Every structure is written in structure tokens, then in C-alpha cells.
């Protein structure tokens, strides 16, 4: 079970993602404001962050960049989940540090699979850091 923060200002989308990931065994909190989300993520240090691009307060890309610049959160897996399509947008997010980019609408199974992959990657990275002399 992972602790996940989903940053999404659309209540319906937030509820859908929370339900899908809760059924997959995770604890999911949904935050609808970018600035509040950044502060909460920095304080709570979740196992995974899912970000929308368009948010009030602070855009998802700005949250992503700040999390990657902060030592306590730079290894936190981040999945962008957005309605914004386009290879250049996905490339921009990946270059800024996103681990994955998923476009809405999505298949629930695809979301669960990508979340699980990000969590496995985080565990692998953490295990390697612990074992180094």
C-alpha cells in the first residue's frame, strides 16, 4: 500500500482516480490547489505524486520542477495525468523530471499499471541507495 497525493482541481476526476487507486490497495488524498498541494507534498512526503498540468495557484509543471529541486522530494515518483495532449508536452514533462505522462481519458487498468511501475522503480532506487557503501 502506497501513500499517494493526486493534485487535481476537477472533483469528478479526483474522485475517479481516488476510487481506482483505493481499489488497488493505495491510500489516496486529492488536493485541488497547486500551492497547497506543493506545501502538503513537501511536508508529508508521499510515496507517489500524480499531477495535473492546469491547476489554480501553481501549475503542475511548476510543482514538478520544485519537487525535483528539493532534496527531500527529488526521488519521489511523479506521474503527470492531464488532458493536455501532444508529444512536446509529454517530452517537456519528462525532461522536467516526470516519471510518466498519461493523458485523460485513460483506462483504469493503465493508471494502476503505471502507478505500480513507478512504485517498483522507487523501491529499486531506494534499495540501491541503501546498499551502497
UniProtKB/TrEMBL annotation:
UniProt keyword annotations, A-Z: DNA-binding, Phosphoprotein, Transcription, Transcription regulation, Two-component regulatory system
CC terms in the record's Gene Ontology section: cytosol; protein-DNA complex
Domain of life, per lineage: Bacteria
GO BP of this protein: regulation of DNA-templated transcription
Name under which the protein is recorded: Response regulator
GO molecular function per UniProt: phosphorelay response regulator activity; transcription cis-regulatory region binding
Residues spanning the signal sequence: none
PTM annotation (4-aspartylphosphate): residues: 52
Organism of origin: Sphingomonas ginsenosidivorax
Ranges of residues in domain Response regulatory: 3-119
Gene3D superfamilies named among the record's database cross-references: 3.40.50.2300
SUPFAM superfamilies xref list: CheY-like (SSF52172)
Transcription regulation is among the record's keywords: yes
Amino acid at each position: 500500500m502506497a501513500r499517494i497525493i493526486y493534485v487535481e482541481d476537477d472533483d469528478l476526476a479526483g474522485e475517479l482516480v481516488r476510487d481506482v487507486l483505493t481499489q488497488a490497495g493505495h491510500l489516496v488524498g486529492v488536493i485541488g490547489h497547486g500551492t497547497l498541494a506543493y506545501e502538503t507534498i513537501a511536508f508529508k512526503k508521499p510515496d507517489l505524486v500524480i499531477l495535473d498540468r492546469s491547476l489554480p495557484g501553481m501549475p503542475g509543471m511548476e510543482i514538478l520542477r520544485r519537487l525535483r529541486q528539493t532534496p527531500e522530494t527529488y526521488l519521489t515518483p511523479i506521474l503527470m495525468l492531464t488532458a493536455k495532449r501532444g508529444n512536446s508536452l509529454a517530452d517537456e514533462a519528462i525532461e522536467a523530471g516526470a516519471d510518466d505522462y498519461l493523458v485523460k481519458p485513460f483506462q483504469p487498468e493503465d493508471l494502476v499499471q503505471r502507478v505500480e511501475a513507478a512504485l517498483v522503480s522507487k523501491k529499486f532506487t531506494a534499495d540501491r541507495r541503501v546498499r551502497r557503501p
